[in-house]
Amino acid sequence: MKIAVIGSINMDLVLQVQRLPQKGETLLADHYEKVPGGKGANQAVAASRLGADVTMFGALGKDGFGDELLERLKQEKIHTEGILRTETPSGNAMITIDEQGNNTIIVYPGANFDVTEIWIRDKLELLEEAEWVMFQLETPMKTVEDGILRLKASGKNILLNPAPAKELPDSLYPMIDVITPNETELALLSGTEDIEAGARILLKKGVRQVVVTMGEEGSVAISHELAIVGKPYRVKAIDTTAAGDTFNAALLVALMEEKGMKEALSFANAAGALATTKLGAQSSLPTKEEVLELMKKGLKQNA
Ligand code: ADP
């Protein structure tokens, strides 16, 4: 079961403060933590923890964060031959969280913008090994477009998680097997807030399968043939960072294990729910055993 992830790798610098600072104000933080993140790396680590054989394609600076992030990916059993080291500093995100859980985030894309279509073309031989390729939108759009075009032409299956929300060229849709927007992203891509109508617009543009994540409401999968609702799992959510990334990885792992869509949604909902029960991005990604455990408990709750 081989997955390639083409995407971002960041170091998240998380500061917990009593309240968010005003303009011009200096505050002391109560707690500081450095957590590996970036949508691409989160999805790669989540898929690996759930049992997939994952190769990551991205870029890191030749700096301390770059060394550390590369080492963390290796520790997660991810193949790293697809990662370029560049002179640009590694990507990072400055996150402040107040006592009510409100946050402000500044992302510095850094080396992630050096993941060019030329780097990906250079790595096509390595990409040949993958059955599925996952993309998000934290690398340059040109890389996403060119990568999807070439990889679809060489027979790969494509999952696009269109996050953070950005418009996509119409020519891209027919090459996407599964697209996984959340409600906000779907509204931007389709121009309507109605989930079913929005999904049908994307299907009409040529996507094979639309899977919409809806936070604590769970998820829904809509194709030309049918619509399937994935019921949410009830958990004590404390930080929803990386819930969507975990959902995406879990959905793909389940589909690659030839699970039907209903079961795949259930597996992905359980994985996404678990990611909300711990602070941080990669610190919160569950293992396969933890997901199966929650699914068993959830079934009992519903019985
Ligand atoms: P994103 O972070 O990309 O907006 P969502 O918030 O929709 O993604 O979360 C992805 C998935 O994680 C959801 O479809 C759901 O299965 C699960 N999830 C997220 N938040 C919760 C929650 N509070 N309780 C239970 N499940 C959740």
Q: Describe it for me?
A:
This protein is an alpha/beta fold. The protein has a single domain (2-21, 29-302), classed as 3-Layer(aba) Sandwich (UDP-N-acetylmuramoyl-L-alanine:D-glutamate ligase), CATH 3.40.1190. It contains ten helices and 13 strands. A hairpin with a 5-residue loop joins strand 6 and strand 7. Helix 8 (243-256) packs antiparallel against helix 9. The longest helix is centred in the last third of the chain and has 15 residues, at 261-275. The mean pLDDT is 95. The protein binds adenosine-5'-diphosphate (ADP). Adenosine-5'-diphosphate is lined by residues 163, 182, 213-216, 218-219, 232-233, 235, 237, 240, 243-244, 247, 269, 272-273, 276.
Secondary structure layout plus pairing:
Elements: E1 2-6, E2 10-16, E3 31-37, H1 39-49, E4 53-61, H2 64-75, E5 79-86, E6 91-97, E7 103-108, H3 117-122, H4 124-127, E8 132-135, H5 141-153, E9 157-160, E10 178-179, H6 183-190, H7 195-204, E11 209-213, E12 219-223, E13 227-230, H8 243-256, H9 261-275, H10 288-302
Adenosine-5'-diphosphate (ADP) binds at residues 163, 182, 213-216, 218-219, 232-233, 235, 237, 240, 243-244, 247, 269, 272-273, 276.
What's a concise summary of this model?
By secondary structure, this protein is an alpha/beta fold. It has a single domain, classed as 3-Layer(aba) Sandwich (UDP-N-acetylmuramoyl-L-alanine:D-glutamate ligase), CATH 3.40.1190.20. The chain has ten helices and 13 strands.
Uncertain ranges: none
- Note the gap between the termini: 33 Å
Characterize the quaternary organization of these chains.
single chain
- At CATH level 2, the architecture is 3-Layer(aba) Sandwich
CATH top level label: Alpha Beta
CATH superfamily: Ribokinase
Task: Round the mean pLDDT to the nearest integer and report it.
Answer: 95
Topology, number of strands: 13
User: Taking strands numbered 1, 2, ... along the chain, how are they ordered across the largest sheet?
Assistant: 5-4-1-8-9-10-11-12-13
